[in-house]
Write a structure and sequence with these properties.
This protein has 271 residues and is an alpha/beta fold. It has one domain: TIM Barrel, CATH 3.20.20. It has ten helices and ten strands. The protein has helices at 10-23, 28-31, 37-42, 76-86, 107-120, 137-144, 159-165, 171-182, 199-211, 238-251, and strands spanning 26-27, 47-50, 54-55, 65-66, 91-96, 125-129, 150-152, 186-193, 216-221, 255-259. An eight-stranded mixed β-sheet has the order 1-2-5-6-7-8-9-10. Helix 4 packs parallel to helix 5 and helix 5 runs parallel beside helix 6.
C-alpha cells in the first residue's frame, strides 16, 4: 500500500517559508518534494540545500531539477547561517545539488557555509550531507577539516541498479567517499528501496557500507516524484522495513532508522 501523510499545515508552511524567502535560500523540503515537510516544519526544522536548486546530474528518481546551474551566491553562507539563527535550530543539515560545473565541485562553498553557521550559531550541531565531489581528495579533505559534527553521503540504491538510476554517478566512488569520511567523523548513509532490488542486493549494500566505515543508516521507501520519473516497483510494508532495520543492526550498524517515509535527514538530530 502506498504510504500517506497528513496534508501540510498552511500556518506551518507559511511560518517556515517566511524565513526561507526572507533570506532567499533553498530547502530540500520544497525542492525534492519531501513527504515529511509538514512534520519537520512542525518541529521547526529544515534541511538547507545550497548552491542552487538545479543539479548537473539527472538521477532517474530525484525530484530536483537538472540542467545548467546559476553562479554561486557568495552571500549564501551568511544567509543560511542567519536562517539557522532565525529558526533557532540546535541541529542543522546542509546538503547540495551536484555542481560538476565547478572546478572544486562546490566543496569550498560547502565549507564556508558550515563555518559561517558555526560562527553565528556556536551551539548548533551541523550535519553535512554532501555529493561525491567526483572523489576529489582536496574537496574531501576540506570537508573533514570543517566544523561539521557528522558527514553523510547517500548511496541511494544497490549496486546492481546504481548505474541505471544514477547514470552520472558511481557506486564504488560513493563507497570510497564514505570510507574517507569515516576516518575522521561520524558517518551516515541512506538507501531508498522500491526500485526492484532483492533482499540479497540490500544485504550486500549494507555490508559494503559497513566495510566503508558507515555507522548510521536510514532506509526509506521510494516515492515517484512525477510520472516521468522511474516507476515504483514495490511498496514495502512496515513489517518489511522492521526486518530491514533488524538486518542492519545484526550486521553491525550502530544507529538505524527504517520506514516508508524515512528520508536521510528525517529526525537527523535524534539518530
Amino acid at each position: 500500500m502506498k504510504p500517506k501523510v497528513l496534508a501540510p499545515s498552511p500556518e506551518l508552511i507559511e511560518k517556515t517559508n517566511f524565513v526561507i524567502e526572507k533570506h532567499g535560500i533553498n530547502t530540500v523540503c520544497f525542492s525534492s518534494k519531501c513527504p515529511n515537510i509538514s512534520e519537520c516544519f512542525k518541529r521547526g526544522t529544515a534541511t538547507f540545500m545550497i548552491m542552487g536548486n538545479i543539479c548537473t546530474r539527472n538521477c532517474r528518481f530525484c525530484g530536483v531539477k537538472s540542467g545548467h546551474p546559476a553562479k554561486l551566491d557568495k552571500n549564501e553562507p551568511l544567509k543560511i547561517a542567519n536562517a539557522v539563527k532565525d529558526l533557532n535550530l540546535k541541529y542543522a543539515v546542509i546538503t547540495s545539488v551536484d555542481r560538476d560545473d565547478l572546478t572544486d565541485y562546490g566543496s569550498a562553498h560547502f565549507y564556508k557555509t558550515i563555518e559561517k553557521i558555526k560562527d553565528i550559531n556556536p551551539e548548533t550541531k551541523i550535519e553535512a550531507l554532501t555529493p561525491d565531489f567526483n572523489g576529489d581528495l582536496k574537496a574531501l579533505e576540506l570537508l573533514v577539516s570543517s566544523n561539521a559534527y557528522k558527514l553523510a553521503h547517500n548511496i541511494e540504491t544497490v549496486e546492481r541498479l546504481h548505474k541505471k538510476l544514477k547514470p552520472k554517478s558511481s557506486y564504488t566512488l560513493s563507497l570510497k567517499v564514505l570510507e574517507y569520511y569515516s576516518k575522521f567523523k561520524i558517518t551516515k548513509s541512506s538507501i531508498i528501496v522500491g526500485f526492484g532490488e532483492s533482499i540479497k542486493d540490500i544485504e550486500k549494500t549494507f555490508k559494503d557500507l559497513l566495510n566503508a566505515g558507515v555507522s548510521q543508516l536510514t532506509i526509506g521507501q521510494y516515492l515517484r516524484p512525477t510520472p516521468k520519473h522511474y516507476p515504483v516497483k514495490k511498496y514495502y510494508s512496515e513489517n518489511e522495513f522492521k526486518e530491514l532495520e533488524n538486518l542492519a543492526y545484526s550486521l553491525g550498524f550502530k544507529a538505524v532508522v527504517s520506514g516508508n517515509l524515512i528520508r536521510s535527514s528525517y529526525y537527523a538530530d535524534r539518530l
